[in-house]
């Protein structure tokens, strides 16, 4: 069963040493029980299978279709792989965190920005905060600053062969250790297609290698590229409002997509009013945590990020950020 209503200490989270009280893990996923992503078995070597794989975007970076035998030549043994896999995102490497909203106005961009800021303040290495661009991009507007690229426009520039050709950095420094890669809304930044998937993975791998952590604002997963990031991320942070209708939306969204296999998954309930969610919403969130294996975190109101700025807003939810980052930055 999920946590009893009386056990949920909404709006009050403790330090990392008391995370068991702040993060409500299910019995199946208690603490360190999260396992890394496992690769799906390689597909068969038939041409039809390879075409099917290409159409559903499930091939990964560096995969090449191997030519079949010429007429009269012996068949390739069954043990010979048809696809050569090179680099992928390391599930045990630096965190690549997809921050995903379960509905409209959930606070996804705010949570992504605050997690990245708090990680950069408590770390010794650079932290990257980015989004996929496109018409729904809001990260640059929230921060009041714009870099040369979003992750989406970087993919398109990479494909066109013009990415960082003049040595320009694709990101801008917000603070000593926080880098932001985000632009204003631009429909041309949207990424589509199988080739984009390969480039997107390559950029995420480089981000993982160069940063202590990477946080990607994936919005409501409306773009294909946003869903791809969530599918290969090492961590998922779901963000929901605290009302009953939003709790039901969150349950349906997380159960429908899942992205099982990430090292840790959280559901951050981002309240816009004091006090815990009502009893019905509490029940919905508890069932969601039990059914999907996410750790449940309830945040008090953080205030307006645009008006307050990163530092002030982060202080208002410091315990929540500490609780989440204690699991992410291990």
What would you note in describing this structure?
The chain has 330 residues and is of the alpha/beta class. Strands 3-4-2-5-1-6-7-8 form an eight-stranded mixed beta sheet, sandwiched between helices. The longest helix is centred in the middle third of the chain and has 17 residues, at 194-210. It has two domains: 5-37 and 89-328, P-loop containing nucleotide triphosphate hydrolases (Rossmann fold); 42-87, no CATH class. The protein is built from eleven helices and eight strands.
List the uncertain runs: 1-85
Tally the beta strands: 8
Mean pLDDT metric: 75
Percent strand? 5-15%
Gap between N and C termini, in Å?
A: 28 Å
Strand order of the largest sheet: 3-4-2-5-1-6-7-8
Q: What is the highest CATH level, the class of the largest domain?
A: Alpha Beta
In the CATH hierarchy, what is the superfamily of the largest domain? Answer: P-loop containing nucleotide triphosphate hydrolases
Major sheet:
8 strands, mixed
Q: Into which percent range does the helicity of residues fall?
A: 25-40%
- Shape annotation: globular
CATH 2nd-level architecture of the largest domain: 3-Layer(aba) Sandwich
Q: At the third CATH level, what is the topology name of the largest domain?
A: Rossmann fold
């Amino acid at each position: 069963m999920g946590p009893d209503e009386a056990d949920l200490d909404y709006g009050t989270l403790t330090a990392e040493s008391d995370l068991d009280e702040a993060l409500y893990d299910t019995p199946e996923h208690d603490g360190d029980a999260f396992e890394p992503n496992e690769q799906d078995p390689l597909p068969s070597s038939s041409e039809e299978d390879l075409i099917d794989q290409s159409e559903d975007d499930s091939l990964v970076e560096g995969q090449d279709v191997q030519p079949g035998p010429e007429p009269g030549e012996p068949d390739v043994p069954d043990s010979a792989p048809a696809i050569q896999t090179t680099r992928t995102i390391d599930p045990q490497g630096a965190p690549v965190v997809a921050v995903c909203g379960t509905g409209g106005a959930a606070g996804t961009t705010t949570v992504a920005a605050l997690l990245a800021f708090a990680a950069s303040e408590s770390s010794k290495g650079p932290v990257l905060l980015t989004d996929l661009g496109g018409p729904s991009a809001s990260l640059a507007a929230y921060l009041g600053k714009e870099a040369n690229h979003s992750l989406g426009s970087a993919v398109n520039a990479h494909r066109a062969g013009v990415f960082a050709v003049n040595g320009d950095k694709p990101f801008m420094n917000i603070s000593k250790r926080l880098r932001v890669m985000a632009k204003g809304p631009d429909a041309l930044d949207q990424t589509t297609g199988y080739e984009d998937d390969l480039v997107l993975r390559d950029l995420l791998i480089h981000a993982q290698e160069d940063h202590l952590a990477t946080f990607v604002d994936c919005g409501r997963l409306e773009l294909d590229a946003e869903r791809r990031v969530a599918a290969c991320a090492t961590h998922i942070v779901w963000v929901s409002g605290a009302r009953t209708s939003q709790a039901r939306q969150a349950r349906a969204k997380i159960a429908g997509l899942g992205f099982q296999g990430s090292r840790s998954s959280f559901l951050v309930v981002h309240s816009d009013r004091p006090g815990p969610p009502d009893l019905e919403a509490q029940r919905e969130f508890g069932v969601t945590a039990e059914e999907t294996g996410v750790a449940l975190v309830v945040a008090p109101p953080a205030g307006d990020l645009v008006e307050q700025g990163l530092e002030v807003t982060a202080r208002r939810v410091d315990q929540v950020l500490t609780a989440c980052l204690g699991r992410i930055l291990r």
